[in-house]
Amino acid sequence: MSIFSKYDGLAQSLAAVTADGGRNPFAVVIDRPLSSTVGLIEGRETLLFGTNNYLGLSQSEAAIEAAIAAARTHGVGTTGSRIANGTQGLHRQLEERIAAYFQRRHCMVFSTGYQANLGMISALAGKDDYLLLDADSHASIYDGSRLGHAQVIRFRHNDPEDLRKRLRRLDGTPGAKLIVVEGIYSMMGDVVPMAEFAAVKREAGAWLLADEAHSFGVMGAHGRGVAEADGVEGDVDFVVGTFSKSLGTVGGYCVSDHDGLDLIRLCSRPYMFTASLPPEIIAATMAALDEMGRRPELRHTLMDNARRLHAGLNAAGLRTGPQASPVVSVILDEVDQAVRFWNRLLDLGVYVNLSLPPATPDQHPLLRTSVMATHTPAQIDRAVDIFATVAREFGLMRPAAASA
Amino acid sequence: MSETVADVSALIVQTLLANPKVPRDINGSSKIVEDLAFDSLAVMNFVMEIEDSLDVSVPLDRLADIRTIDDLAACVVSLKQAT
Predict the structure, then answer these.
(1) Chain-centre distance of CA A40, in angstroms?
(2) Is the pLDDT of residue A404 over 80?
(3) Nearest C-alpha neighbor of A145 from the set A166, A117, A164, A168
(4) Half-sphere exposure of A378 (CA within 13 A, CB side)
(5) Which pLDDT score, from 0 to 100, does residue A218 have?
(6) Could you give the CA distance from residue A155 to residue A177 in angstroms, rounded to a whole number?
(7) Is the pLDDT of residue B64 over 90?
(8) Amino acid B2: pLDDT
(9) Separation in Å, CA of B15 to nearest CA in chain A
(10) Residue of A218, A207, A152, A202 lying closest to A176 (CA atoms)
(11) Residues A231, A133, A95, A217: is their CA dihedral positive or negative?
(12) What 3-state DSSP class applies to A92?
């Protein structure tokens, strides 16, 4: 028996997805980006609507120059973990800059956003503690809960009342209660009701960790996320996030006002046992952070673009989530239809993400798009036209839109 | 806390049968993943319904040891007795 035989079902699912000559949607190669919004795929110029590069800063001139300069002065890698030989002056600088941006006392930087969630959640919630996770949490949050030893309780997605009920069941039990929510949920683009969760947290005397991976640089007057937009930053004990979306690089962070954060450096395995961020990435991240702070108009254009795409797809008769946010997902019913739709979009020059259950809520396949501040209105209209063309080919127009 | 494992097991079967996709011939010894063809997410969502019916929280780490409907019923009863 092969060690891979437990994946026979997975192999069959993949074979079904690629039947009839379809592409493997999880192995698309972007030969190279031509700009933040256009990439070369299969030799064709393709509109990028699935890269999470919300502000387009992966192609920031300032960040590119900073990376080159840092590589010249520092080299290209640290070859060590943060607690051994892997902390350089640049790491401290980056932590100070991120803490200052969030107006928090402390910051810890991780090598990826995935590791930031893994490292914070597993270390904060110990054996006698309780973790309360939103049902639609990202895999990094679930994985963090499995790496630690806390009791893990799931509450209904974006439902503060359901959380309140589950906290009530824990009344009188010893141990800290750590609530984990996300700012914007990555599959449907829906936004957390942070102020309501903050109220539940205060009532219960619990702790609150918010993963603002998709909302950092996107929500709030200064781009500090949904907690800023809702005016409840003081109730969020820990903000976790990533550099790999709005800042266009890679790496993760946690900011907090709690002095205990420094102790986490000595007990968080995903922080301790991996190589630290390389100098050129740190320099590029700091340059991108400067640019994000200096150009608030990027956020306004991003939200205008999100509304344009959301409205356009709905007008084309497609079903999306209720909110216009930088993640706009078209909801379909059948996996094979979603696979064919996704292939056709790529044939016609639009790259989006195909998201399949069980990674999606409610067992629906999604065509997940992410919008950028650097998309032009013409590019968005072109993408909407191509979506509408494919929807017509597939007979997917909803009656209201078809007759309009 | 008067529920017995048999009571809870019957309630779980009844809850499951409300879902038209679930096979009709299930009983307490049915295996949740194999016999019901539930993936990991479906199992967690179904447990959430049971939690609400019985006003109890089942920590996710307890699910790892649960194979059958009776296992889940026994776990729920022990959690209820502990509170």
Answers:
(1) 24
(2) no
(3) A117
(4) 1
(5) 96
(6) 13
(7) no
(8) 66
(9) 18
(10) A207
(11) negative
(12) helix
Identify the residue whose tokens are 């879902």.
Answer: B19
Q: What count of residues does chain B have?
A: 83
- Tokens (6 digits) for A278: 């390389």
State how far the Cα of A268 lies from the Cα of A79, in Å rounded to an integer.
19
Please tell me the pTM assigned to this model. 0.94
The domains found in chain B, sorted by start residue, are 5-82 (1.10.1200.10)
End-to-end CA distance of chain A: 58
Residue type, B61: D
Half-sphere exposure of residue A254: CA atoms within 13 angstroms, side-chain side: 30
Residues contacting A347, CB < 8 A, separation 6+: none
The per-residue pLDDT for range A334-356, each reduced to its tens digit, is: 999 999 999 999 999 999 999 99
Question: Of all residues in chain B, what percent are helix, strand and coil, respectively (each to 5)?
Answer: 60, 0, 35
8 Å CB contact of B40 and A358? yes
CB contact under 8 A, A135 and B44: yes
Question: Are B59 and A169 within 8 A, CB to CB?
Answer: no
- Chain A residue whose CA is closest to B40: A358
Q: Which of A108, A110, A239, A103 is nearest to A181 (CA)?
A: A239
Question: Does the structure show a pLDDT above 60 at A109?
Answer: yes
Q: What is the pLDDT of residue B13?
A: 93
Say what the ipTM of the complex is.
0.88
Nearest one of A348, A354, A346, A363 to A330, comparing CA atoms = A354
Query: What structural domains and CATH numbers belong to chain A?
Result: 9-48+296-402 (3.90.1150.10), 59-294 (3.40.640.10)
Q: A152 and B40: CB-CB below 8 Å?
A: no
For residue B60, give the nearest of A154, A170, A363 by CB distance: A154
What whole-number distance in Å separates Cα of residue A212 and Cα of residue A324?
A: 17
Q: What is the pLDDT of residue A19?
A: 87
